[in-house]
Amino acid sequence: MIPQFQQRHQDYVIGPNQDSRLGSVAAGQLVTGIQFQMEPDAPFLLRGRAYRVKYSGFETRTQTGLQNVAWRWSGPDEDFRSAQLIPQNLQMAYGGQSAAFRPVYPQILYPARSTVTMDVQNLGTSTLTNLTLYLRGVKLFPFGINPAYTYPKRCRLLNYVYPINYITPTNPTGAIQNLSISDTRLAQTFTTKPDSGFALRALQAGPSYAPFALEIGIILRDENQKAFSNDYVHYEVLCGPSTGNYQTGSAGSIAAMGTGNAAPGILFPEIYIPPQHLLYYDIQRSDTGFAGAATIPNFPINLMGSRVYKA
Q1: How far is CA 177 from CA 131, 166, 192, 296, in A?
Q2: Which residues contact 204 (CB under 8 A, 6 or more apart)?
Q3: 280 in Cβ contact with 187 (< 8 Å)
Q4: SS3 breakdown of the chain: % helix, strand, coil, rounded to 5?
Q5: 176 DSSP assignment
Q6: pTM for the complete prediction?
Q7: Residue 147: inside a domain, yes or no?
Q8: How many distinct structural domains can be found in the chain?
Q9: Beta-sheet strand order (sheet of 30-37)
Q10: Which of 81, 135, 160, 281 is least buried, going by the fewest C-beta atoms within 10 A?
Q11: Is 148 domain-assigned?
Q12: What is the spatial distance between Cα 201 and Cα 279, in angstroms, rounded to a whole number?
């Protein structure tokens, strides 16, 4: 069967920028009636969920109170999918971070401009800072609305990893260089080589050595600068792997296993970039106020997938 719609990767972010109450959720506080209206350009199929809170600092690198979030959410008709708020540590490890989203099955269809209603509660004894909820899935577009680049009729594939920037003598890893503690860079570009297209299927990001990053978000955009998310997605949610610690139970914390090198942050559907075409991205770092914050000389982002050659 020929598919009726073109699926396009989409992340919806609901955080303090969308509802200011999520900036600080006190111990025991119940926040009800969080209403988020989805974009008007296309219906949305919800297939995954995740959430996070702001890191406590560079020394502990812990998301304080992460294990104390209870959450319930509705379909497009304010039809909640649970009678009560559910403690999320019962449903997903690490808040679904490190690109390990909690699957939503069966998927839920939200028509264009739908409103999803959510309630959250802090079940712990410490304040949740910058609680952010993520809804992952695909938008459904009629064919012809967006560019529908695809493989040549005859082609061969080569598994390949691109760094986000060109490799040069002064940037031998192709990383983002000199990312200051408060830094926003818009409309950055990645360009494929002239001899092949690239099927982007997965992402990895973040230094595994000091100085570390805490609060860095990424927005991916196609060559028309149309975004694949409504706001910045934290790099450890979008890409993996995670280098932080996650609180569990009433005390203590463990390092996230993450998805690691074997299975980094998967994009579905893949993003196909023809030869010498562009992928745009915005990156924002907000580590002001953290003791020990410093400029990151090299912040790597790896684009993983296949180079596509004409056969």
Answers
A1: 29, 12, 20, 7
A2: 239, 240, 241, 261, 264, 265, 300, 301, 302, 304
A3: yes
A4: 5, 50, 45
A5: E
A6: 0.94
A7: no
A8: 2
A9: 30-37, 115-122, 69-73, 86-87
A10: 81
A11: no
A12: 13
